[in-house]
Queue: 3 jobs
Job 1
Amino acid sequence: MKRNENREGIKGMVNPGRYGIERVSYWLMRITGLGLLAYLIGHIYETSSILNGKSVWDSMLQLTQTTQGHIILTLVIGMCVFHTVNGIRLMFAHGGIGVGKPTRPDYPYIPNSQNMKNKLCIYASIGVAALAMMYGLSVLFGE
Amino acid sequence: MRESIIMKIHYGTALGAVVLVAVHVLFRITMMSYGDSLQYENVIANYKFVPYAIMLELILVLLSVHGFNGLRVILIELKQGRSYEKAVTYGCLAAMAILIAYGSRTILMTSMGMT
C-alpha cells in the first residue's frame, strides 16, 4: 500500500464516527467559534449604523428584526452557550482537572482523559445550549 | 510570544467576555422589553452612560482578541509552515486591530453625541 492511500486528509479529520462525542465536540467548538466571530463582525457593522441617525438605525432594525433575523439570533444564542460551557470544560481539562491520573498503558489502551465525566459535560453543553435557544425563541417571538 | 502565554490570554479574555456579555444581554432584556431596548433613543442613552460605554469597549477588545486568536489557532491546525504561520498570525493581528478601531469609533462618536 502506498503512503498516500492510507491518508484520509480532511475527510478523516471531519469523520465524527471514529472518535465519538469528543470529535463532535471538537468540531462544534470550531464551527461555533467561527460562527460567533462572523456574528461579532456583523454586529459591529450593524451597530455602526447608529452614527448615521435615527432613520438609518430604524431601517437597519427593520432588516434584522424579522423572522429570519430572530432565527439567526437564536442560533447565535445556542452557539454562544455551547461555546462557553464547552470552553469552560476545556479550560479545566487543559489544567489537568477531570482528566484522571496517568496510568500504565495496557490493552485496550482506553485513555483516562476520555472518561464519562467529560462525555457527560459535552452532552450537558449541548443540552444547556438547546435550553438557552428555547428561552431566546420565547423572548424574541414572545413580544 | 510563547504559545502557553497566548493560551492564558485566550482563556482570560474568554472568562472576562462571558461576564461582560452576560451583563450586556441582561441590559437588553431586564431594563425594558427587548424590542423597546433597541429603539434609537434608548440605544443612544446606553452609549451616553459612561460605565456602559466602557463596558462595550472592553467587550469589543476581549472578544476581538479571543475571536481572532481562535481563528489563528484553527488556521494553524489545518496547515503548518513558517511563512504560512507568520502570514496567519500577522493577518489575524491586522484584522483584530481593524475591528477594534472600527468598533471603538462607533462607541466613542456615539457616546460623545456625534450622531
Note: The two ends of chain A are 63 Å apart (CA to CA).
Job 2
Amino acid sequence: MRVALFLTCVNDTLYPDTGRAVVKLLTRLGVDVDFPMGQSCCGQAHYNTGYRHEAEPLARHFSDVFRGYEAIVTPSGSCGAMVRELYPRMGERARAEGRGDSLARTLAPVVHKTYELTEFLVDVLGVTDVGACYPHTVTYHPTCHGLRGLGLGDRPRRLLEAVKGLELVELPGAEECCGFGGTFALKNAEVSAAMGADKVRAAESTGAEVLCAADNSCLMHIGGTMSRLRTDMRPVHIAEILASTEEEPAA
Amino acid sequence: MSSRDRILGRVRRALADVTPDERPYGEAVPRDHLRVHGERTPEQTVELLAENLADYRAVVHRADAEGLPLLVMRLLAERGAREVLVPSGLPTRWTAAADVARIHDRAEHTPQRLDRVDSVVTGCAVAIAETGTIVLDGSSDQGRRRISLVPDHHICVVRVPGQVVSSVPEALERLDPARPLTWISGPSATSDIELDRVEGVHGPRTLEVILLS
Amino acid sequence: MSGTFVGMPAFPEAARAAVHNATLRGNLRHATHTIRAKRARAVAELDDWPALREAGRRIKDHTLRHLDRYLEQLEESVTAAGGTVHWAADAEEANRIVADLVKATGESEVVKVKSMATQEIGLNEALLAEGIHAYETDLAELIVQLGKDRPSHILVPAIHRNRGEIRDVFRSEMGAWGRPAPEDLTDTPAELAEAARLHLREKFLRARVGISGANFMVAETGTLVVVESEGNGRMCLTLPETLISVVGIEKIVPTWRDLEVFLQTLPRSSTAERMNPYTSMWTGTTDEDGPRAFHLVLLDNGRTDALADQVGRQALRCIRCSACLNVCPVYERAGGHAYGSVYPGPIGAILSPQLRGTASEIDASLPYASSLCGACYEVCPVAIDIPEVLVHLRERVVEGGPAVRQGNKVVLKPARGHAAERAAMRAARWAFAHPGTLRAGQRLASRTRRLHPRTLPGPGRAWSGTRDLPAVPAEPFRDWWQRTRAGRDGAE
C-alpha cells in the first residue's frame, strides 16, 4: 500500500522527530511511506481564524499533492479533522456562494482517504500492538479535534495499553480542552494560559513522567506551559512512543 | 406598515433559499425516539413512579379506597392542618374522616386568604412514571391552579394504575392543551445557589402523593 | 439589547479580570463541574438521546424554515383562545407595548418570571422610566436585581456568586425592596431560599400584572409553556389578573406532540433533572382560572437578521438550556460578564453578534472567545454546531460581506484592527503555496536557532508571557527526508 505522510507544516518545521517516528513506525509495520515534497499546510489556521477564502488555495494545493495516494496519514487530529470535516464544508460554502462545484470536486478525492495516525493503525492496518516498548509512566490527553471531530475514541488508548513497559495512568478531566485552540492561544492568551495551567496541574497530579497526545500543536502549548511552570513532566507525541522499541528506544 | 407585516416580510425575505417543494412537516421530522423507556408491567410502572417521586423528595403513600380517608386524616393531623382547600369535585369521602375546616375555593377569595390555608387536597389528570411527574388539568377534583400553589402543603391523590403512564409522550397524548396544565415533579426547588438543588421555595414545600389503588 | 452592556470592552480584556479573580474562578468551577457530572448522568438514563436530539434539531429547523406560516398559525390560535397578539420589531417597540399594557391596568408594579427575552430588551429599565417597578422573582434574578449586578449565566444568572456573597446581598438589600431578610440569616442554601420566599410572597399575593417569557409556543394549539423550578413562575402566571408574555419569534414549535421531545431534553440538559419541578402550560385565557387578560408580544429584535444567514440561523434552534455554558472551558474561566450580553457562553458568542451585529468591539470579539474544542456542540440538545457558526462569524468579522441588519440587506466592511493579521494570513498562504519559500524560511529558522530568545517581544508576548517557545530543530523534517533519500538509508 502506497501511503502518503501528511506531516503538517507545524511538525515539519518544529517537530521533525514526530515525522521520523511515523516513518519508522509505519515502515516497521510494512507500509511503504512517501513524503510528498510538495506538501505545505492544510489551511486550518486560516480557516479557523475566519480566512476561509485564503484557505481555499491551500486546500486545492493539498488535493493536488495528495490525491494520487491510496491513503494519507497524518499525526495530527486537528489537521486530519480539517481535511475530513472542513474540506467538504468549504466545498458546500463555495457552492452556496454561487461558485459552482469546482472546489467540492477538487477536494472530494482526499477527504475519505485521510486518516489520523491512530485511526490508520487501528482501522486500516488492524493493529493495536505495534511492537513498541516504552518503559515509562504515561498519561494521555485526548485532543479536542481528534476526540470530538474525528471521533478517535479509545484507539489511542488501546495502542498505548499494548506498549511494552508502558504504565498508563488516568488524566483527571482528560476531555477538557488544553486551551491551545490555534490563534485562540494568542487572541485570548489569558484564558488560554489559565486552561493550559489547569491541564498541566491535572497532568502533574497523576505522577506520570510523560503527557502523551496525538497532536503536537496542543503539546507545544502544554509543553511550553510545563517548562514555564517548571514541572518535571515532558510532552511526547504518541507516534514517538509507538515507534520506540527495545532496540531503538525513544530519546 | 404594521410591525406584523414588517416582521413577516423580513421572515419571508430571510427564507429566500427555502424552496416551496421542501419536505412537509410529517417527513421533515423523524420520530425515531422511544415512546417508552424499558418494558414494564403496569405494577412496575407504578413502582417506578413511586421511586422517581421519592427521588425528588415527594412523600409517597399508598392506600386503597377504604384506607384513603384515614390516611388523609392522618397526614393532615400530622401536619397540624386546621383549614384545608378542597376542589368542588373532590370525592367527599377522601377528606370525610379529617377533623378540619374544608374551604372551597371561591372567586372572591383573595390570594392572601388562600395563603392562610394550611393544606390542599387534589386529584390529578395523569402521572408520569419515568419522570416522577403528576399533571393537574384544572378538572373539578383539582380546582383552579392557584389552590395547589399557594398553600404550603399539597396532598395529591393518583388513581393507580389507571392514571399512570410511563412516559412524557404518553402523557401528552392524554392531555388536552386547551386546559390550563401544571406539571409537578416534587416540591418546589431551586438550583440557583451554586447549581446545587435545594427543595422549598415558592410553591408547596411539602408534596405528598397518595397512590390510590 | 439592554443598555447595560453598551461600551463593553472586547472579550479578552473583559476576561482578564475574571481569570485572575480567585473567588470567581472557584465559584464557577464548583458550579459548572457539579452540573456537568449530573447532566451526563441524566442524559445517560435515556438510551434514545441521539434520536431525541435529532428530532429536536429537525423540529426546530423545519419551524424556522417555515416561520412565517407558523407565526400566522400561532397568532390565530392564541387569538381564538382569548389572547391578544402584539408584534414588536425591536426592543424599543416591545418595551413600549408592554409599558402601555401595564399602564392601561393602572398598576405601577409588576412581578416577573425569569425571561431571557425581557432581559435582552432591557424591559425593567424601560418600565422604570415609565414609573413602573418590575420585581424579579426567580431566586437568581432576585440576587442579581438586589445586588445591582448583571446576569452571568442563562439558567442561573447569579452563578458567579457563592452562598456567602448571596447572604450578604440579602442582608443589606432586601429591606430597601420590601420585607427585609431575617437578621440571623446564615449562608445555608435552604435558609437563603426561605428568605427569598418570605420576601417575595407579599409581592406575589398582591400582584395584578405578571410578565413572563416562554420556553415554547405551540402553533397548532396556541399553548405557551414555561418551565421552572421554584414556583415563582406559577405565581406570576396564575395569580395576576393580567399576564403579558414577551417571546422571541423562534420559540415556536408546530404541534402539541413536539413537546414530547423538548420536555425530555430540556430539563436533563439544563438542571440535569428528569423533569423540572414545575411546568405551566396555558392556552389563551380560561374562565375563572388564572389571568383574565393575556397578551403575547412576539419579538423580532434581530432574530430575522440571524434567520437570513444560512449558516448562522441554526443558533435560533437554541432552547436556552445552558448546557453549553456549563461544559465550556472558556466560560468557566472568563465568567459570564466578559461576554457583554445577557447571552453568555458559547451560545452567546454566536447569538449576540447575530442579534446585535458585529459593529461594536465586544460583538466583533465574541466569535473568537472559543478554542473551538467542540464540547458545546457535543452537549447541545438541538445539535447547534456552535464551532461552525463561530468560524463563520469570524469570517464575517475579518472579511465583511453581505448580511442583513434590521431587515435590510447590507454589505459589511471588514472589522478594524485585523489589518496586520490579514496581511500575515495572506503572506502565510503565499508562502505555503510556494514550498520553496517555506523551505527557505524553515532553514533560516534552523540555522539561527541558537539565537532564538525564549520569550518574544511585542505581540509575541501573548504566547511567551506564559509559555516557553518550542526549540527549533537542527533541520526540518523535509531536509532529513531528502538527505536520507526519502528516509530509506535509515541514517539519522
Note: The first strand of chain C starts at residue 84 and ends at 88.
Job 3
Amino acid sequence: MAFYVVQFLTGLASAASLFLVASGLSIIFGVTRIVNFAHGAFYMIGAYIAFTLTERLSGAFGFWGGIVLAALAVAVIGVIVEMVLLRRIYHAPELFQLLATFGLTLMVEDLVVLIWGPDDLVGRRAPGFRGAIDFFGQNIPSYDLFLIVLGPVVLGILWLLFQRTRWGVLVRAATQDRDMVAALGVNQKWLFTSVFAVGVFLAALGGALQIPRDAVHHAMDLRTIVEVFVVVVIGGLGSIVGAFVAAVLVSELNAFGILIFPKISIILVFLVMAVVLIVRPWGLFGKPEAAARRTPGLTVNPWRPLTSNERLAALAALLVAAMLPLFAGNYLLTVGSEIAIFVIFAVSLHFLMSVGGLASFGHAAYFGLGAYGVAFLAKMAGLPMIVCLLLGPLLGCMGAAVFGFFAVQLSGVYFAMLTLAFAQIVWSIAFQWVSVTGGDNGILGIWPEKWAASPSHFYWLALGVAASVTIALRAMVFSPFGYALRATRDSLLRSEAIGIDAKRIQWTAFVIAGTTAGIGGALFAYLKGSVFPDNLGISLSVDALVMVLLGGVETVSGAVIGAIVYKALNIWLVSQTDLSKLVLGGFIMLIVVVFPKGIVGMLEMLAQRRRKSSPPGSPLLAKPIESAE
Amino acid sequence: MKLTVQGLNSHYGPAHILFDIGFEVGEGEVVALLGRNGAGKSTTFRSIVGLVAQRSGRIMFEGKDVSAKPTHEIVRDGLGYVPEERRIFTDLTVEENLEVGRQPKRPNAPHWTREKLFALFPNLGEMKNRPGGRMSGGEQQMLTIARTLMGNPSLVLLDEPSEGLSPKIVEQMVDAILTMKKEGVSIVVSEQNLHFARLISDRAYIIERGRICFGGTMAELDARPDIRDAHLSL
C-alpha cells in the first residue's frame, strides 16, 4: 500500500513541472492563438541556464536565486523572439506559426550542444531538500514534496493574476476577441509580448526546477513538448485549471501505467488523449470554439490544369531526371532515389494539406507503416519484392483508414494534434513491441531483388513510381472528387449544403494520402535495407511539412520542388556541417517569414507580375484576413 | 470640426467596398449615417478606427490626422467605437467588461465612472457580477456602450444601436444617447431605422453601395422624400 502511495506522490511531483510548462503554453495559445512548438526549447534552455547559474552561485540563496534568474533570463529571450519573429506571423495560417517555432526549436537544439556540450549534465541538489522522508518504509525525496506543494501554489498565483489584476482581465478579454480589445484602446502588441513572456517564464521555471531531479540533456525539449501537447489537449487549450488537472492525470498515468500495463505504458497517455479529442475535442476544461472561419491561403489563385506546353516541360524535366544514371555515380544515384521517395511522401501530404485543407502533423506514421509492411512481408513471409511493394503500403492504408476516421472529425490545430498523437502511438508500438518490430534495433536486411538491386535500376524504379504518383494525384485534383475535396476545404458548411458528404470525402482523402505515403515508405525500406522506429517519428513528419511549405502550400505541385530542394539541401548540409539543425531551423524560419508562398508560389507570383502589373493589395506577406461585412 | 473624413476608400482583399467617403461631425453634434444592409456603414466605422487594414484617405480627429495610426492609439485619442454585433466579452462579468474599456480622464471630454454608467443604465448596476454571456440582447447592447464610455471618449461611433431590440429597450437607448449628447459627447450613429435616427440626430448622411449620396439636416432629408425612398427601405 505504502508503495502505491509513494508512486502516487512521485507522479504528483512530476506533474508540477509539467503543469508549469503546460500552463505557459496554454496562456500563450489563449491570447495569441499560436501553438508554440518552441515551448519545449524554452523549457530546455531554462534547465541549462539554471544548471550553469546554480553551479556558479553558492549557497541556498545562490541556488534558488539561480533558478529564478534562469527563468527570467529565458523570459527575456522569449520577449526578443516574440518581437523579432512572432510579431511578423500572427496573422499567418496556424501551420506557419507551428513551423516557425519548430525551426526555432531545431536551432536551439544545436545551440545548446554548442554552448554546453553533448553530455548529460547532473545539477546540484536543492539546499534544504536533499534528504528523503520515510513513509512506512518507503523513501520519498523531500524535493518531491516541495514540488507537490509548489504546483497548487503556482495555480493559485496564476488564478489571482488572471482574476484580480487589470492585466489578467485584459488577457482574458483578448483571449476572446483581440480586435475588440484594441478597439477599446489597449495596445495589443505589448499585451501579446507580456503574455508570451509570462508563458516562457513558466516553461523555463519548469525546466529549471527539474535539475535536482533529472539530468539536463539536449533532447529534453522534444520529449517535453510532446507530453505538454498531450496535457493541454486533454485539459483544454487555454484553460489553466485544465492544464493542472491534465498534468496530474498524465503524470499519474505514467507513474501507474508502468506498474499495471508495462507493455503499453508509453501509449497509454496518447490513448487517453485520443479518446478525449474524439469525445470532447476542446478538452476537459476547454470551451468549444465558435466555428472559426477557415483560414484560406494567403491569396486565392484559382488552380488550373497544366497547359500543353507546361506538360511538355514537365515531361522534359522527367526525361532529364531519368538520364541521371548515364553520368552520375552510385552515391548520387542513391541520393536521387531518396529524393524521389521523398517526392512521393511530400506529394501525399500536400494532397491532404493543400487540396484537403487538413494539415497532418503525423504523416510519417503512414510512411513508416508502409516501410514496416514491407519489412514484415519480406522478412517474415518471405514474399518476392514486387509483391511486397504492392502489399506493403496496405499497412499504411489500413492505418490511415482507422486513424483518419477519427482525425477528420476535427479540424485545424486539433486535427494536427490528433494526427500527431496517432503517429506517436504508432511510433511507441514500433519502439516497444520488440518481439515483432525489433524495437530500437529495427528490422534489418530488406534488400531489393536482383532486378532492382543496382543503384541505377532502383533509381529508375523510384523515379517511375514518384512520377506516376504525382501524375495520379494531380489528375485527382481536377477530378470530381478533387472538386468536392476542395469544396470541403474552402467551406465545410457550404459543401455540405450542396449535398457533399464532407467527412466521408475528407476521410477518403486521408486514406489516399496515407496509402501514397505508404508507397514511399515501402520503397524507402528497400533503399535503406532496414526499418527503424524513426521512420515514423515526429521529425520525419515535420520534414514533410517543411517540404510542402517550401514548395508552396497553395500551388498544385509545389511539393515536388519542395521535396527536391529540401532533401538535397538536407543531405548536403549534414555532409558539410555538424550544425545542420541550426542552419535548417534558420532556413525554415526564413521561409515562413520572408517567403510564405514557397518557391513555386514565388515563381508563379513573379510570372504573374511580369504579365501584368500586380493587383493592388497583394503584398508578399500575409495580411490579416478580414471578415467582409 | 470634431471629425472630418475625406476620400476614404476601403478594400476587403480584392473587393473595393468604400468609394471616396466623406463627411463631417461638429463639436457636440449627433450625426446619423443612414443606409441599407450592406451599404457600407459598418465598414466606414471600422475603417475610421483602423480595423480595416486596406484603407486610404484622410481622417481628421480634433484637428489631427489619425488615418495612419493603429487602432488602440486612435481610440486613446478619444475616438470611441461601439461595434454592431455587441462584441462583449461573454466570459467576463459586467464589471470586468467595463474594466477593459477603462482609460484615463481626458480634459476635453466628460468623465464616466462605473457609478455614473450604472445610473445611466440601471439594469447593468443590478448585475455587476453576471458574466456577459448570460445577459439579454438589450442588456448586452447597453454594456457595449457603457464599456466604450469607460474610455472617456469625446466622440463615439455607434454602429446600429437599435438593431434587434424591443421597442421598450429602444426607448431607453434613445434616452441614453440624448444623455451622452447632453454631457457633450459627439456621436455618429449608423442606422437603418429612420424613425430612431430622427429622435436623436441633428444631421444625416445617406450611404449606398459604398458611396455617400446625401448629406444634410433632418429637415432637409424630410423635404426630399425621393431620396429617402430610393435609398432607405422603410
Note: The first helix of chain B runs from residue 41 to 48.
